[in-house]
Amino acid sequence: MVAGEHAIVDLFGVTADKLIDCAAACSAIEAALLAGGMRIIDRKSCVFANGGFTAVFLLAESHASVHSYPERGFVALDVMSCAHRPTAEIVKMIRDYFAPQRAEVRVLSRGEPLKAE
Question: Which residues make beta-bridge pairs with 105?
């Protein structure tokens, strides 16, 4: 049985205003997590000298994290759910907030052995 679903998301071509507004991004991420049925236990964030930020959400179901890179127009997003809740809708809502020019989404099934080659 799979332990959970882990979405790893790279967002490219994000405008600078979205990459330096930690409060707005965290509000959008929180709304997406709650809409997806996640229960937020805690949130910690840090804003760096260049305006970029990192935020981590501790969830009853696992975790979510975001790292912004204003100098690169890039966001690294991570959403893990061990409650068998699909992450796709949560990722879509967060992606819609950041409005990237391009996105790469990988979804891993955690706790499932890799197949031998």
Answer: 9
What residue spans define the domains of the chain?
4-110
Distance of CA 89 to the CA centre of its chain: 12
Percent of the chain as helix, strand, coil, to the nearest 5: 25, 40, 35
The answer to whether 6 and 107 have CB atoms below 8 angstroms apart is yes
CATH superfamily of 4-110: S-adenosylmethionine decarboxylase (3.60.90.10)
**Residue 63 CB partners (closer than 8 Å, separation 6+):** 56, 57, 78, 80
Per-residue model confidence as pLDDT tens digits over 17-42: 999 999 999 999 999 999 999 999 99
Position 74, amino acid: F
The residues that bridge with 54 in the sheet, in sequence order, are 46, 67
